[in-house]
Amino acid sequence: MTNARSNVVIIGAPGVGKSAVLRQAVKKWRQQNKTTGCWRMTAERITAGSKYLGEWEETCESLVEELQAHNGVLWIDDLPRLQHIGGESPEVSVAAFLTPFLQQQRLRLIGEATPQEWDRLRRKLPAFALCFHAVHVPELPIPEVRKVLQQLADYIHTSRKIQLEPRAIDTAFQLLNRFFPHERFPGKAITFLGQCVSDAIAAKRSHIKPRDVIAQFVNQSGMPELFLRDDLHLDQEALRAFFNSRIIGQPAVTEQLCNLVKIFKAGLNNPHKPIATLLFAGPTGVGKTASAKAMADYFFGAGQRRSPLIRIDMSEFQSPYQIQRLLGDGTRAGQLVKEIRERPFSVLLLDEVEKAHPLIFDILLNLLDEGMLTDFYGRSVNFRNTIIIMTSNLGAAERPTIAFQKDPLDTSKYLSAIEDFFRPEFVNRIDHILYFQPLAEAEIGLIARKELEELPLREGFSKRGLTLQFSEPLVAHLVQIGFDARYGARPLQRAIEQIVVNPLARWLLEYPDTAATTLLIDYENGQVRVRERGREGGLGEGAI
């Protein structure tokens, strides 16, 4: 740290050990230079609390003077972030302001960056980048990674009295290698095993076994053990039954979704792309959103506290300036970037994708092809553990959403409309186009019953221990008024709220002591009637 370029940046992929290299270097340097010191902080702290023009510049000048007085070195955790704070562009940022101090050797900085972040910084502020000596840190070979993890296990046993079994380390290595190929060892393994240790301490366990590692991975990803253990076999009948219970009247769609599950279970999906990229084509209200929810629950519904379905209405991004809301700008993270960073294991539903501005399709090209997206700061966002589903009504104009007789679906008109609207390179990046056919009247009845069966799960019913039974006349009435030729089964939920839930709410307010009993909800003479053993009432008009 005494040559002309005494500022050092450690460059490497996430997880290769950049911070560990810097810590060791600083430790050795302190031993050799007893009269100097190293201060560590984030880039944001430099401008924190600055409200007025010129205030953060004064903070920077004071910081430089203080470091000079103590012959100190400043370690910035997120060094590339300096080009994004202070001003509206890199040319008037903190990094640009500090460049003269670095050139005059009045300030010494150290930090770390990924190759992508450093390349971006070099393009934006070459003078700032030239002040640094770049040290590249490659990923450790597998034998060295295993030595590091064994050293970690020895340290945990010595310091925490917790035995990390070798088979548990192997299980963690295999899971991380498959599901986080974009991150690097040993960092990702150290972080993950550290979480396993925290759980073991909380549960007062003295051993960490393979099952504990799998349980931790389920909690983080929401994936069922079926996908994480090779010794568990896929029950194809149970798989088909799951999707058939969630998706009504779309046998071809459920079959294709089952095939995607089989491919993923066999480990044959491309690890360098999203798990699957799907386009759901068909009229409104025939089950496209319900199918996306079913996929989210099957793949990622086992452990996550938040919903594994991320839904973005693409009709809200019809103008070029709205792209910043999706990807982010210098002040905040975009909706898409923020959601996937928080829930990398999820189903991303881009609803009515054709309504978005064409520039967004260009942005999605690389995402669909490589499963990676670069945000405003040059940081990579990983979509490779995500299922991307786009919905579209293209080709559905003037087509009914209800069919009283099921005929083979003519997909050519849908495909023609899709190919006419999207560029060929965009369509070519879609793994599968799934076509949804119109619903038959009997299937609307099945959907109505399915929605009604979910009502007892609501808190107001479950906490009272109430069982609900619905008569056939009620279901028939809901089918009649809850289905619209233009919107399919979508109005059905609103009809259930108005015709069933509202009368039930009034009935329960009238009889607040009702508990641990069965209520029969019927439709008679234009009214919804609620009956209980020994008690009955006629409440609410049947018409909306």
Structural write-up:
By secondary structure, the chain is α/β, with parallel strands linked by helices. The protein folds into 4 domains: 7-136, Rossmann fold (3-Layer(aba) Sandwich); 142-221, Helicase, Ruva Protein, domain 3; 236-435, P-loop containing nucleotide triphosphate hydrolases (Rossmann fold), CATH 3.40.50; 441-541, Orthogonal Bundle (Helicase, Ruva Protein, domain 3), CATH 1.10.8. It contains 23 helices and 18 strands. The strands form 5 sheets. The chain has a 5-stranded parallel β-sheet. Strands 9-10-13-8-14 form a 5-stranded parallel β-sheet, with helices on both faces. It is globular, with a radius of gyration of 29 Å. It starts with 6 loop residues before the first strand and ends with a strand. 35% of the residues are buried.
Number of strands: 18
Residue share in β-strands: 15-25%
Q: Main sheet: which strands, in order across?
A: 2-3-4-1-5
What does the average pLDDT come to?
A: 90
Q: Which bin fits the share of residues in helices?
A: 40-55%
- Whole-Å distance between the termini? 77 Å
Low-confidence stretches: 537-544
Please name the CATH architecture of the largest domain. Answer: 3-Layer(aba) Sandwich
Radius of gyration: 29 Å
The shape, in one word, is: globular
CATH class designation of the largest domain: Alpha Beta
Assign the structural class, choosing from mainly alpha, mainly beta, alpha/beta, alpha+beta, or little secondary structure: alpha/beta
Q: Find the CATH topology of the largest domain.
A: Rossmann fold
